[in-house]
Structures are given as C-alpha cells and as structure tokens.
Design the sequence.
C-alpha cells in the first residue's frame, strides 16, 4: 500500500511546465526550444564535406580514366580490325595466287600428258600399222610396255603380247635347236591391221578412263589439301589473335596491378595523415569544451531574453487594458458629441424652416443739397476735374453706401447662419 502511494503521488517540488499563456487566456504560445547554435560547422561536418569533395574528385578521375581507357580500347580495336582485314586480304591474295599457280601447273601437266598420250598413241598406231611381224625380243617387249604405260586389264595386254612371246619363244627354240627349219613369215593382212587398230583404240579408251579417274582423284585430293590448308591458316590466324589478346590482357593486368598499388599507397598515406592530424583528439576536445561554453552562455542569454519577454508581455497587457478603457471612454464621448450635434442641427434646421419673413427696408434716396446754379458754378469754376467730381459725388455715393451696407448686413447674417449649419 505504501509503495503504491509512493509511486502514484508526485513529489512536492515538481511543478507543471509553464506554458506561454497570457492572464486573459489569449495568444497561447508553447515553450521555446533550447538554443542550439548552427552558425559554423563542426569538425565532423567539415570532414564529411571534405570526404564528399574527395569522393567526387576521385569519381571524376575514375570517369576520365575510364573514358581514356575506352578511347584506347577503341583505337586498339580499330588497329586490330584494320590489321586483321589487311592480313585477311593478304591471305586471300596469297591463296588466290597459289591457287592460280596450281591451276596453271595442273593445266600444263594435263596438256603435257595429253600431248604425250596423243604422241604415244599415234606412234603405237604407226608402229602397229607398219610392223610386219610382232616384236620377238624381250627388249622390244619392255620398250613397248614402257611406251604404252597401259593400265588396262591384263587379259587385253596378254592378248597383244602373247603372240609375240610365243613367236619369240618358238624362234628362240628354233634358233637354239639346230636342224629345225624356220617356217616362212606369213604376209600382213587387212584383218590383222583392223584387229590391231581396234586393240589400240581399246587401250586408248582404257587409258583415257584411267587418266580421267586419276585427274578427278587428283582434283579431289588438291581440293581437300586446299581446304585443309585454309582451315590451318584460319586456325593459325585465330591463334595469333588469341595470343595478341592474351598479351594485351597481360599488359592490362599489369597496368591494373600498378594502378591498384598506387591507389592503395595513396589511400594508406591519406588515412595515416588523417590519423596523425587528430593528435590525440585534443583539438576536438577543445572544440567540444568551447561549444559547451557557448551553449551555456547562449542558455543564460536565452533565459535573460525570456525574462525580458515576460516583462514586455506584462507591459503589453497593461497597455492593452488601458487602451481598451480609453477606447471605450472615447467611444462614449463621441456618441454624446454626435447626439448633441444632431440635436443642434435639427434645432437650427427647424428655426430656418419656420422663421417668419423679414420686412423689406426701403432706404429713401437722399436729395442732393446743391442747386443747379451752384452745381453749374462748380462745374464752370477753374479747378481740376477731380476736385469737381469730389464736390459733386459725396451725396450720391453716401446714399448708395447706406443701401449697400444694409444689404450686406442682411447677407452676412444669412451667411453666418448657413455657415453654422454647414459646420454642424
């Protein structure tokens, strides 16, 4: 029970915070916040600004470096592209020249081979046509085989060579066996010539077929060799480009390593300089103590200004009250004054409206006291005209002056009444 009482009951010394409210309950103002000087920046803010500026400078340097690197890469790529195009043109030129040389050599070989085949075919045809009997010696057979270079089936060659060999063997046997008579040579017939011509044509056809197959095979082989050579050249060019790219990559890696080392060294020096610049945080402690003193002085000044403000508020309240009282009195007086003025104006207006008419004043015209004889004598006298007029005029002017004075007096009375009415 005692604990609950202690918790709930507020201490006697505590008072509610005073609000900036006037005694009449108007113009409610909250309490002012504490005075916090913000004129200058603290050391931390200055360091933050310096860091931001340094970061902006580094970002700008990095951007410039990247732009320079991209420009260099673009130039390198342009040079590489130009070099690759040049190498490709040179390679195609070399390939074209080589293929042209090969084609020319192939055509020359084909022409030479055709000439040789034609020459050998004609030679063999002439030999077969002129020859009365087939060759009987082994040397003739070898020369015939070497000259023909036949690749036809063996049965066709055996048919053409067998009679000679048989005759040769018979002749040899006949020569080797004494006492044997040699039969006479039979004459060459047209059927034998035609048969030999047919055999020669068959051999030529076989030779042409074999040569055609050889040429086709050689063309296929040369084409395959060209394709292999081109593929090898392409792979070599790709390998060269790869090697160049690797060399460039190694150079870029080396440059990146150097830049990284320089940046790290600069960063370490910067951090070391900042740490050394702190000097045990003495400057910061002095700044903090100076700020505390300034805050304390500002608080005292704020309290003094608050007290002056309270006094000024009290004076303003008193002044407002006196002003309100004076305003009420003045309003009452003005109302009384205007009531009196309205009454007087109404009274004057009634007098003006209901006043009886005044009688008309008739002023008798004064008679001139000078008789005509005197008047004529004055006019005929030897005196200046001004004196004559002064003697004759006074009487008439006096009468006119009397009438004008009476009228002016009446007009002035009316004007004074109207002026008073206008003033009211």
Sequence:
């Amino acid at each position: 029970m005692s604990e609950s009482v202690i918790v709930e009951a507020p201490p006697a010394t505590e008072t509610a915070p005073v609000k900036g409210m006037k005694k009449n309950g108007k113009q409610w103002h909250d309490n002012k916040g504490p005075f916090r000087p913000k004129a200058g920046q603290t050391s931390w803010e200055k360091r933050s600004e310096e860091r931001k500026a340094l970061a902006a400078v580094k970002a700008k340097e990095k951007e410039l470096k990247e732009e320079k690197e991209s420009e260099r890469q673009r130039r390198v790529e342009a040079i590489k592209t130009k070099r690759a195009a040049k190498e490709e043109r040179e390679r195609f030129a070399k390939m074209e020249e080589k293929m042209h040389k090969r084609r020319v050599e192939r055509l020359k070989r084909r022409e030479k081979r055709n000439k040789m085949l034609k020459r050998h075919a004609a030679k063999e045809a002439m030999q077969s046509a002129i020859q009365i009997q087939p060759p009987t010696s082994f040397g003739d057979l070898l020369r015939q085989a070497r000259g023909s270079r036949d690749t036809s089936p063996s049965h066709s060659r055996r048919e053409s060579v067998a009679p000679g060999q048989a005759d040769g063997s018979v002749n040899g046997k006949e020569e080797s066996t004494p006492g044997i008579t040699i039969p006479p040579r039979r004459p060459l017939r047209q059927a034998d010539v035609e048969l030999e011509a047919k055999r020669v044509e068959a051999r030529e056809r076989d030779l042409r077929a074999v040569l055609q197959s050889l040429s086709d095979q050689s063309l296929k082989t040369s084409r395959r060799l060209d394709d292999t050579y081109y593929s090898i050249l392409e792979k070599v060019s790709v390998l060269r480009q790869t090697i160049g790219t690797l060399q460039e990559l190694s150079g870029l890696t080396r440059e990146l390593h150097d830049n990284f080392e320089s940046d790290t060294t600069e960063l370490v020096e910067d951090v070391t300089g900042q740490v050394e610049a702190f000097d045990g945080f003495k400057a910061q402690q002095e700044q903090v103590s100076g700020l505390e003193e300034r805050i304390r002085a500002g608080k005292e000044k704020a309290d003094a200004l608050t007290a002056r403000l309270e006094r000024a508020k009290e004076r303003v309240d008193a002044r407002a009250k006196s002003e309100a009282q004076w305003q009420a009195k003045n309003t009452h007086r003005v109302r009384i004054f205007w009531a009196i003025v309205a009454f007087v104006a109404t009274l004057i207006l009634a007098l003006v409206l209901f006043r009886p008419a005044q009688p008309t004043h008739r002023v008798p015209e004064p008679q001139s006291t000078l008789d005509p004889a005197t008047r004529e004598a004055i006019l005929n006298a030897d005196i200046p005209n001004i004196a004559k007029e002064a003697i004759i005029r006074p009487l008439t002017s006096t009468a006119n002056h009397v009438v004008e004075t009476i009228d002016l007096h009446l007009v002035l009375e009316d004007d004074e009444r109207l002026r008073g009415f206008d003033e009211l």
User: Anything to note?
Assistant: The chain has nine helices and no strands. The chain has a mean pLDDT of 73.
